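Blinded run. Sample ID left blank on purpose so nobody reads anything into the name before looking at the predicted structure. Input follows.
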Amino acid sequence: MTGYNVYAKYIDEPYLAQIGTSATNSFDTGEAWAENASVVTSIYAVSAIKDDGAKSFLSNMVENNDRDHDGLTDEEEAALGTNPSNPDSDADGLMDAEEYIRGTDPNSADTDGDGYADLLETQINADPNDVNSVPSIRIAGTPPSYKATLQAAGDAVIANDTIEMVATDISGDLNCKRSFNNSQRWV
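Blinded prediction complete.
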């Protein structure tokens, strides 16, 4: 590979045009970052130039209005008070746009204040917007491991682990694939 062709168009234009080439994997377009509506959004794509001069397929197109690539434009991030240079402003494991879509607070790792991070609650089918919806099944330990179902906890438990449940309705069958001796018990 000998370099890259860089293509661009404004968001309201129908076709890409080549705006330059680069021997490295970076290219300065010289255009302003579209951090608000006063700057027109541009769309960019890149193709690699092979040693024989042939061009590869185009890369995915990207816009110059979401510097952290979290799905929210910089203008939207300014309105929400999130960090346009950090895709997860509250460091809870959910990207800012995902939190916006879920209705959780991208500036708070624990939207409902129940002591459980938003990501954990979404992973185990608890509602991160409801203080009364908390993880109900966990494998005790340091750190504890939360599970969405008793079956998932049963599948993950190892020797000397304890499965703890709080306000959990149990229905259906539990398929234990492990042997338990007298020193191991379900609590």
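Unblinding after everyone has recorded impressions. The first helix runs from residue 74 to 80.
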